[in-house]
Amino acid sequence: MAVMEKLRMFVAQEPVVAASCLIAGVGLFLPAVVRPILDSYDTSKQVPPPVLSDVVASMTGEAYDNGMG
């Protein structure tokens, strides 16, 4: 139990550093868990991306008729 005692002493002496290490550990662990969960969802429901010329026209303020209505 020497490791637990040293860990408790570290947390008591340096609480900010210990909290920072904990937050960093969570930050490193989350992508390993969340990404596979997101990948498991059905991807067939994704919306197709807009036509690039429509995006450019809307960003520049020009009226662009793509012939689709």
From TrEMBL:
CDD domains attached to this UniProt entry: NDUFA3_plant (cd22904)
Domain of life: Eukaryota
UniProt xrefs under InterPro entries: At2g46540-like
Protein name (record): Fiber protein Fb11
Organism: Rhamnella rubrinervis
